[in-house]
Amino acid sequence: MSGPPVREGPTGTGRGAITPDGCAVELYARLSAGSEPEVIGPVLRPGASVLELGCGAGRVTHPLVELGFAVTGVDESAQMLERVRGARTVRSPIETLDLGEERFDAVVPGSFLVRTGDHRLREGLLGTCRRYVKADGLVLIQREGPGCHSGLPREREDHAAGCTIRILSAEPVGDGVDEVRAEYVFEDARWTQTFRSRELTVERFEAYPEEAGLAVDRCPTPDGVRVLARPGQIRGNSDRGLAGR
Question: Rounded to two decimals, what is the model's pTM?
Fold first, then answer.
């Protein structure tokens, strides 16, 4: 298999291997899963099959495996996948993933990939979600709302990992896309990452899954960061309950 495609915009610095999308392998092996397993786990049936798209070094994969889910992790980077334990792994770009007739109880695209600045990548991501989710399954999409690129610089602590995460700047590069610079500081190491991201209104966010044949359902937590979507037709704003968030 040839190497992963080089993405426009992403870069990264720091020790160890850096993937073509600017992610440092050792960094993502260190970062904690945060609250994601506690959000994802309760909406799935016990032992559910999960397709995790952009699993990286297993930050979320490993807790999901520990919760008893059958996880298939997909990533472009062989070096990332070498860090994954307890799950089946598939090396592939998300948008061209080929798993034949397999379908999953849940599809979980990693991080905030839906906000990519590249329309083709976003359409490919959501198309893959729709293609591999079962008819009665669900897709858990992660999002950030308006204002996520304002008030910079700002920082937060990943206490479990012992890391300070700083979003340093977000500079417009055209078509509603910002080039975002981030820094990750540990006592013994520092990494940076630059990537392109698009701020999304609620209405624009909801439109993207719908265009891929996924009906936005609800937010499982009050912060609205994770959104559930299901295959099928849209039932109307009153049923989805997101428009006012």
Answer: 0.88
